[in-house]
User: Which sequence fits this backbone?
């Protein structure tokens, strides 16, 4: 009851007193062609953002905000997720994929900001990318993205180590060179055909030195990028408002300067039911993922609307490059035992979870960590875990806990934000008790605290998910790559939070990385995937399906398997 009252109070705060940004007179600029200028796009996130500094964007809420503010050399096409030019107007790649040359477009400006003389944003040059990539290769608490260049870019590891030693190499990262004001070259240690995906990652966005010097750790909320929108208002836990960048470099095919929208407003209601209510009232322009208990009701509304031909909203449904899983701390006394991990995996009925708990919203994760949808990656050829009570009991007994005797009560840690996670966790809790006589208690905490505990190794068993940063198996398999685990157990391990290490897996993963031919590379990735499955270092639950509701007037906002949102060309029109 208390949660409901809090949610209603939050709605009142966020919707009863519109902000000046929302009530201002819409732009009177007329657009050429079938598009329209103006309007505030309103959407909600059920989790608060954690950090808006590109090198510390480690969760999806922060990414969805910052992807509208910052840009890199390349980006993803939101329709088909192919790599397209961004701040770089073009690039060249040598035959063995070891050298990439980027040609930066002239006239791209950083946002106007007090960190610049007279507050005017200056032009972006190759030197700015050199600076940003050097920061990416610098050991610092606020940098969680070194894994992007580690063992890929020539000299990245040497420079990183020099910053740990307190004596940064004077010549910087040897593989990154400014050829001239608008040309940057990156040389790799060995072939890596998927490197453009890395360059499209948020960790490779360009950030001006002036901003970092001026704001330091305040870059967490002080954003200065080149993107179509810029920070207007940040009220943590309540709202983030992004205003149109009037100096944005891009124009559409009709000659209109982008973006079309005046602003974007993110609110942070924590309850999905309250979010859906706000959508139905017209206070939100979209909702992502429906409350499980209301899916049939929403679908019914659309079916009823077919009769009159006047749909109340748009609905987009597609398979996702996303996996829901439960993590094990592989360095802990309990889960370092492979037989315990296998017992847990066999004890879970994933098909029952998806069919009944998730009401068919997803696909049982009976294979590896890479979800379906990547053409050519034969994920269903892998041998994963399906429910097998006999095997579950056999492995638990082998681990020294026959029928669960002597097995300690364990805590399953999960983040707040919607009832879906709780419902799945309760089902898993019940299955582990019924199958293995293992007692599991749940601890729910805010997302930022949850991630901190997971990354610092302070929890043994937790709920997690991975939504692709880019459409490549490498992005998922990198979660299990041993060199991503710090030597010091007390040091934060962001990308491989389960601290799984297997030399055979690492060798196969590295072989895939250096293979240029795509299908051959995918074969090695699958082999690595199977090696990890045999070790059961995590417990896959399901491969996601994404559902969006959009108001009828939302235009040019395609759905994709990564829920990659780019508002540059979104517009509102009746």
Assistant:
């Amino acid at each position: 009851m208390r949660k409901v009252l809090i949610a209603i109070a939050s709605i009142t705060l966020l919707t009863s007193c519109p902000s000046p940004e929302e009530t201002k007179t819409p732009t009177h600029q007329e657009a050429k062609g079938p598009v329209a200028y103006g309007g505030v796009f309103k959407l909600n996130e059920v989790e608060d953002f954690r950090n808006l500094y590109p090198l510390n964007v480690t969760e999806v809420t922060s990414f969805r905000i910052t992807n509208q503010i910052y840009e890199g050399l390349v980006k993803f096409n939101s329709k088909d997720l192919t790599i397209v030019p961004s701040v770089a107007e073009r690039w060249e790649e040598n035959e063995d994929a070891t050298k990439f040359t980027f040609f930066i477009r002239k006239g791209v400006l950083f946002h106007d900001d007090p960190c610049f003389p007279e507050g005017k944003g200056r032009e972006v040059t190759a030197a700015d990318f050199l600076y940003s990539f050097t920061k990416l290769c610098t050991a610092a608490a606020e940098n969680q993205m070194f894994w992007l260049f580690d063992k890929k870019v020539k000299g990245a590891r040497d420079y990183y180590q020099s910053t740990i030693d307190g004596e940064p190499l004077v010549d910087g990262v040897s593989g990154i060179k400014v050829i001239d004001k608008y040309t940057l070259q990156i040389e790799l240690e060995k072939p890596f055909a998927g490197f453009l995906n890395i360059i499209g990652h948020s960790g490779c966005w360009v950030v001006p030195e002036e901003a970092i010097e001026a704001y330091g750790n305040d870059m967490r909320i002080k954003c200065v990028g080149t993107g179509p929108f810029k920070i207007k208002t940040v009220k943590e836990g309540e709202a983030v408002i992004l205003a149109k960048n009037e100096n944005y470099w891009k124009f559409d095919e009709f000659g209109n300067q982008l973006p079309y929208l005046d602003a974007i407003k993110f609110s942070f209601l924590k309850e999905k039911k309250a979010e859906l209510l706000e959508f139905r009232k017209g206070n939100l322009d979209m909702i992502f993922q429906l409350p499980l208990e209301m899916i049939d009701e929403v679908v019914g509304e659309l079916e009823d609307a077919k009769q009159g031909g006047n749909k109340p909203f748009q609905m987009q449904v597609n398979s996702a490059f996303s996996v829901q899983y439960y993590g094990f701390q592989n360095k802990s006394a309990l889960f370092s035992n492979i037989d315990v991990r296998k017992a847990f995996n066999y004890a879970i009925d994933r098909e029952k979870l998806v069919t009944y708990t998730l009401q068919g919203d997803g696909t049982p994760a009976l294979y590896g960590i890479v979800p379906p949808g990547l053409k050519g990656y034969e994920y269903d050829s892998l041998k994963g875990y399906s429910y097998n009570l006999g095997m579950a009991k056999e492995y638990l007994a082998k681990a020294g806990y026959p029928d669960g005797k002597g097995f300690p009560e364990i805590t399953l840690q999960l983040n707040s934000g919607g009832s879906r996670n709780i419902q799945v966790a309760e089902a898993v809790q019940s299955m582990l008790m019924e199958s293995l006589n293992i007692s599991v208690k749940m601890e729910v905490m805010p997302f930022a605290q949850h991630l901190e505990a997971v990354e610092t190794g302070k929890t043994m068993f937790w709920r997690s998910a991975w939504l692709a940063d880019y459409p490549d198996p490498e992005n998922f398999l990198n979660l299990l790559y041993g060199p991503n685990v710090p030597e010091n157990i007390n040091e934060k391990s962001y990308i491989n939070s389960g601290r799984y290490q297997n030399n055979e897996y690492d060798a196969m993963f590295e072989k895939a990385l250096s293979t240029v031919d795509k299908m051959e590379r995918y074969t090695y990735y699958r082999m690595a995937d199977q090696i990890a499955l045999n070790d059961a270092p995590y417990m896959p639950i399901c491969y996601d399906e994404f559902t969006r509701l959009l108001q009828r007037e939302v235009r040019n906002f395609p759905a994709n398997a990564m829920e990659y949102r780019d508002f540059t060309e979104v517009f509102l029109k009746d």
Summary: The first strand starts at residue 40 and ends at 44.
